[in-house]
Amino acid sequence: MTPLLYASSGVAVFAIALYRIFTAGDVLRKIIAANLLGGGVFLILVAIARRPAAGIDPVPHALVLTGIVVSVSATACALALARRLEGTTLDDGDDGDDGSDDTEVAGRGP
Amino acid sequence: MTALDVLLAGALPVLAWRALATDDLHEAVVFFIALGLVAALAWARLDAPDIALVEAAVGAGVTGSLFVTTLRARGLRPPASPAPRRARIALAVLTIASALGIGAALAALPAEPPGLGELVRASLPETGVQHTVTAVLLNVRGYDTLLEMAVLVAAVLAVLARAPSPSARPAARPAAPDDDPARPLIAVLARLLVPGIILVAGYLLWRGAFAPGGAFQAAAVLAGGGILAILAGRRAPDPHARAVRRGLVFGPGAFVLIAAVPLIAGRHVLEYPEGWAKVLIVAVEVALTFSIALTLVLFFPASGEKGT
Amino acid sequence: MTGAIGWAILIPLGGALLAAAAGERASRWIAALAAAATTCAAIGVAASVARHGPSRHPAGGWLAPLGIELRADGLAATMLLTIAAVAGLVAAHALADRSRAAACARSCPLWLFTWAALDALVVSGDIFNLYVTLELATLAAVGLVADGEGPDAPRAALRYLLFALPGSLLYLLGVALIYGEHGALDPATLGAHVGASAPDTAAMALMTAGLCLKAALFPLHAWPVLAYTRASPVAGALLAGLVGKAAFLVLVRLWLEVYPATFTSAAGPVLGTLAAGAILWGSLHALWQPRLRAVIAYSSVAHTGYLFMWFALGTRDALAGALFVVMSHAAASASMFLATGAIARALGHDRVEGLTGLAHRLPIPFFALALAGTSAMAMPPSSGFVGKWLLVRAAFETGHRLWAAVMLIGGLLAAAYVFRLLRRAFLPRPAGEPIAITRSSGGHAALALALVAIALGLAPGLALDLLRGGSAP
């Protein structure tokens, strides 16, 4: 029963984070949500590893350790970009999709 | 299942919700760090001590401090407006429905499951280490770990793209201005703690061969020490200095080399020659510990870098 | 020659690490050598598949299901060659530009990481390892976007990352469920066991949804457009040409090797509908974009639709068609991004209305644009024609007339948006209007890529034979 309990907790964390990553306005909150999405999946994986009576399955543990490193890398990268961001959101000002603004393209040299 | 399990499993979604729903970003970060600590307890309860160690050091520690640093660097910004109400309701319905579906799927998983655990334990003598998680990470699925190190380096390069060099502004200190009243305290703390931290990191690294611990755990602890030393006034490493760059790629580079040598000999990627597994794994772990710790330190903004 | 598959991953990986640590001059030399050697390794894998058929390479010497096996088959070999051709020519473009040596030295570790990640992705025989390769490709791509010069670069990079991450984590959750049910991660074991149970269905739905989000399939197509239009031409070419196809290739593997018929027959029509939406929506939007790069970005949205059309059709010929579109669009869109970069650099902008009468002033980039355009609008004898013809024929054969009609309409719309650009460029320049052209070089790699897109169409048999040389299609 214990694994299922923690796995359900992981699903709840995942669902909350998934909801907030798309609805939150502020990038910092979106980044927290992205990090917690990973946390939810890791909880489920470790709960799955806990089931065998013969002993813990080490493979999901290794997968989670790999996943945590990937998650830290992505979070650090996102936070560094957030520090360089001028506004608070990802879509204030022009949306960029229509490319209608007149800013010079990045391909132009100095 | 005990009351503690119910409490921990119940606290995690509540903390996640608090971290993501509150209007106050400082509060959000505090709840995020609290969640990391509770998660570390949950890992321990799930018999995953390796993950508990990493979570406490990295999940709550390094990532938490990164959020705090970013919050400080960004300063106060006008609050952002959330998604429109209709979109939020639609998405809420969709996520709740999927969560229920996933929950039902989890409940239907076999109670006595197939898994690779037995296979790993049966192959353990050939892996060169005695701890199963280390055997999977650095031998059986070492190829995953090799690519994971590339992810770490790619991320730090992305972080450093266009980052200013701290030597350009030697007076600036990361995240702790000179008038910070906490500085003398941190300096004393650092002098007391850093030697111990290095010892603990070395111990974790050595332990990894036969018990929970290993390169990443040791590196996380080491990075914590490094960050403390920087907060206490030590000069942060200059990400553009040649020596720092070499340090960054030293561990992953050694790993790639060890992966490539068997190819020259006509064998497979990362196939340790017979009898050499243990030596090579220890060598890789020592090299990786050093580079991972440096990478984690470099994730922190140098020279009080602020928004643009 | 089973070692070549290992070299195709380790050389760009090692090259990226060395280039990251070396000085400006040395890092460009390292990148050039690594690009050349990786291309040789890809050719080695393809030669081995063509001669001896598919082979396996267990990483660490550990066989599946315990270990991770790398696989060289027809699908992997053709994709390795495509990646090498596109990434190699884009690399040549970046390295040849001496005026931007510092920027090149800064970004070359990142494009080598991207190359390594894509090579690792197309040969990976492990569903968790695929997650790691996807993340490596994403983070390297984000680094490339963040390195851009425009003020919008951090925003474009962060938006790209924050949409790519939930995509990969949905996929990972599916992987977790599958492991919980079957205790294995290799496609062979899973293909024999995955069925219609609740965990299996949930896992497949999650993985498919995550990969669709990551591939930016309609209606979640808008998020990479900002990155495509704001990144440097080199980054745009790699992202739209190669990284954007990664999630599709993963889904193809799952569809062929893991998913049972009960799931594919139910999910196919759903993906077909989204694919049709992508083709129409992307092509229509490409018609009235005011900027050249936005036209190419929306053309990429439409092309993602052509790829995903395979899931609705499901035949072997349709798969060959979709993979041909992958190859053709990889070369053509990379060519168009580089050509646009050269044009924008010469003019200082890439507004479509400002291109009037410039074709003869910038002959190479506009010629590249025109050639790559014929592939985008599927005009014979281009490779785009071969791919789309195979897809449309398969749609008629399987009775999917509606999808065939959508693809044909998409082709007409593509002809319209390509002609809109070219007509303006070949119009006579109004008298008395000065043209300020600062530099007119830098279109050679674009031209070479466009020629690759055409050449593939002239000799489609070569690629199709190699594709079938493996067990995959």
Present the secondary structure layout:
The complex is a heterotrimer of chains A (110), B (308) and C (473).
Chain A lengths: L1 H22 L3 H23 L8 H27 L26
Helix pairs in contact in A: 1-2, 2-3
Chain B lengths: L2 H19 L3 H21 L3 H26 L10 H23 L9 H11 L4 H9 L1 H19 L22 H25 L7 H17 L10 H23 L12 H22 L10
Helix pairs in contact in B: 1-2, 2-3, 3-9, 5-6, 6-7, 7-10, 7-11, 8-9, 9-11, 10-11
Chain C lengths: L2 H19 L2 H29 L2 E4 L10 E4 L1 H23 L4 H23 E2 L1 H20 L6 H30 L4 H7 L4 H17 L8 H8 L2 H25 L3 H27 L4 H22 L2 H32 L15 H14 L6 H15 L3 H26 L17 H15 L1 H10 L4
Antiparallel strand pairs in C: 1-2, 2-3
Helix pairs in contact in C: 1-2, 1-4, 2-3, 2-4, 3-4, 3-10, 3-13, 3-17, 3-18, 4-5, 4-10, 5-6, 5-10, 6-8, 6-9, 8-10, 9-10, 9-12, 10-12, 10-13, 11-12, 11-16, 12-13, 12-15, 12-16, 13-14, 13-15, 13-17, 14-16, 14-17, 15-16, 15-17
Radius of gyration of chain A: 19 Å
The biggest beta sheet of chain A reads: none
Cα-atom radius of gyration of chain B? 22 Å
Given the structure, what is the number of helices of chain B? Answer: 11
Q: Spell the H/E element sequence of chain A.
A: HHH
Q: Mind telling me which CATH architecture of chain A this is?
A: Orthogonal Bundle
Classify the secondary structure makeup of chain B into a structural class: mainly alpha
* CATH class division of chain A: Mainly Alpha
**Most extensive chain interface and residues per partner:** A-B, 79 and 95 residues
Q: Work out the helicity level of chain A.
A: 55-70%
Q: What string, H for helix and E for strand, traces the elements of chain B in order?
A: HHHHHHHHHHH
Mean pLDDT of chain A: 82
